[in-house]
Automatic annotation (TrEMBL):
UniProt protein name: Pentapeptide repeat protein
Keyword hit for Repeat: yes
InterPro entries in UniProt: 5peptide_repeat
Hydrolase keyword on record: no
Cross-referenced SUPFAM superfamilies: Pentapeptide repeat-like
Length: 229
C-alpha cells in the first residue's frame, strides 16, 4: 500500500526500494542550482550534484530523493529531512547539528567526519552504509536500524537510543559513554567493538556469544579480578 503523508512507515529490514517504487516518484522535479538557507524542497530529485560548502541552515526537504549526491563541508544546522530516499550519497565533513531525519531510507552511502550532534532520527533505515568518525553525541535515535553497515569510530556519547537495531553490522571502536538505551538490539551485529560506555549497555539485548566476548570488559567495569591461579 502506498505511503500517504502523515502515515508512519512500518519499521522493517526489507530490501531497500528502488527510486521508481517511491510513492512520490512521479512527482519529483529535477534540481539545479545551489541550496539556500531556509530553503523549502518538496518532491525534488537531486541527481549527481556536488554540494561544496553550501549554507542550507534551516532548510526543509520533504518527499525528495537523492542519488549519487556529494555533500562536502557546509552548514546544515537544523535542516529537516522528512520522507526522503538517499542512494549512494556521500557526506564528507559538514555541520549537521540539530538536524532531523524522519521516515528516511539511506542506501549504500558514506558518512565520513560528519558532525551530527543533537540530531533527531525517527524511523530511519541505513542499508549497507559506512559511517566513519561520525559525531552523534547527545543525539536521539528512535526506531533506527543499521542493516549490513560498518560503524567505525562513531560517537554516541550521551545519546538516547530507543528501538535501535544493528542486524549484520560491524561496530568498531564505537563509543556509548553515558548513552541511554531502551529496547536496543545488538544481537545481529557481526562485530561488537566498543571503545567506551559498557555500562550504557543496560537496556540493550546481546547474544550469549557476545556476552562471552564482552565478559572481560564487564569484569573490569565491576572491579572483578579474574584469575585461575
Amino acid at each position: 500500500m502506498p505511503k500517504r503523508r502523515g502515515q508512519r512507515r512500518e519499521h522493517t529490514f526489507a530490501e531497500p526500494r528502488e527510486l521508481a517504487a517511491l510513492p512520490y516518484a512521479g512527482y519529483l522535479e529535477p534540481f539545479s542550482g545551489r541550496l539556500a538557507q531556509s530553503g523549502d524542497y518538496d518532491t525534488v530529485l537531486f541527481d549527481g550534484q556536488e554540494f561544496e560548502e553550501e549554507d542550507a541552515r534551516d532548510a526543509r526537504f520533504m518527499e525528495s530523493a537523492f542519488t549519487s549526491v556529494t555533500f562536502t563541508g557546509g552548514r546544515y544546522r537544523r535542516a529537516r529531512f522528512s520522507d526522503v530516499w538517499l542512494n549512494t550519497v556521500r557526506w564528507v565533513g559538514g555541520d549537521f547539528t540539530e538536524t532531523s531525519l524522519a521516515d528516511a531510507e539511506i542506501i549504500a552511502s558514506v558518512l565520513a567526519g560528519t558532525a551530527m550532534p543533537d540530531c533527531r532520527m525517527r524511523s530511519v533505515v541505513f542499508h549497507r552504509c559506512k559511517l566513519d568518525s561520525v559525531n552523534l553525541r547527545v543525539a536521539a535515535l528512535r526506531e533506527v536500524s543499521f542493516v549490513d553497515c560498518t560503524l567505525r569510530d562513531v560517537d554516541f556519547a550521551g545519546a538516547t537510543l530507543t528501538g535501535v537495531a544493528f542486524p549484520g553490522s560491524s561496530l568498531e571502536r564505537v563509543r556509548f559513554d553515558k548513552a541511554r538505551m531502551t529496547e536496543v538490539d545488538l544481537r545481529g551485529a557481526t562485530a561488537l567493538g566498543i571503545a567506551d560506555g559498557y555500562d550504557a549497555l543496560r537496556g540493550a539485548t546481546i547474544s550469549g556469544l557476545q556476552l562471552m566476548e564482552l565478559a572481560p570488559a564487564f569484569a573490569h567495569l565491576l572491579g572483578v579480578t579474574v584469575s585461575d591461579d
